[in-house]
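This part of the workshop introduces the protein records we will be handling. An example says more than a description, so a record of this kind follows:
>
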Amino acid sequence: MPPQKIDTHLHIITPLFTRVARSLSPASGGTAGQVVPSWSPSLAIQFMDKYGIKKGLMSFTSPGPLEGGKGVVREGNVGMRDIADYDEEEEKGKGEKKGKSERRFGWFASLPDWDAEEGVGPVIEEIEWALGEAGADGVSVMTSYGDKRVSPSSCFGFPGHEKFRPIWEKLDEMGAIVQVHPTQVQVTPRYIASEVAQPILDYTLATTRAATDLILTGTMSRYTNLKIILSHTGGTFPYIAERIITQAPDFDMSKDECRRAIRRFYAETAMSTSKAQLMAVTAILPPDHLLWGSDWPYNPESDIQGSIDELDEYINGGCICGVGHPDQDMSDVKGEDGVGAAGRKALVGIWADNAEKLFGWGKYAVEKK
């Protein structure tokens, strides 16, 4: 049985979110072809208890409340803050209020539309409020806004826009932890085989495009005080990383600089625990940059249990993590599976330790400055 977990990809669904999502997709009652599931704090706690999750980081999925404007974004963030602050035992008079790192819920704040007519001012204001006064654990950023990618560049439109740079400067100044979450992709035809929901395939490509953009625009190299978590092990990015590296010289970046920038990414494993996916991501990222995620309640519990089993088997039986990775000590490699005790020990941190270290929780609470 895997140890206690921290879920870095736990979605929250509120009446506010459902109203916004259905206004955008009235036919399906959902978003990007998915139906909006039921959600409540008690249902989330039940799920977490069932699967040994000691803490869940809440975030809204695409399109989040950003489609409703900055007032709706703030309303959604206040709701997450209140849920994260809630302490059932304190409410019942059974104990003292828990410290932030001990509470069951954390949260990634949503941000207003980066590409709105009001400019980036409302986005920066929400970052300051969320990471300052409200105590969010990080912010959630979509893979694209309008026809622009999430990182700035010198060219207009794709792959980004220069006006986004002040947002990254503020996030870097505040040492933010940024979750990059895929959003709907404007493609024709919209749905593969007429009905495959975009999160199944297109979301992985959206994350790949955003990650590539963050590398080649120099965003990952320029803003080194922030941390970026890619959803779903970075989509298809780990598979094609070497193709991206070959483009580095065209962007005034050496191939080694490109590889270093790639290794700065963190990635979580929601819906991405096949051996092929894990082999790819562990080949390009340090083991302590990998986090666990469930994607509940959109990901069915049967699939979540299957992903837990897959990851556990990979760590304990068949992983070849770190082969050729410059940040991995492979001095004890032996056996047919390609790795010894050091590699396995590093990967065990996926369940919880890597997240605690990143966010400064648990035994890392005092150490983090």
In short: Confidence is low (pLDDT under 50) at residues 26-30, 153-160, 322-327, 330-339. Residues 198-216 form the longest helix (19 residues). The chain has 14 helices and twelve strands. The two ends are 33 Å apart (CA to CA).
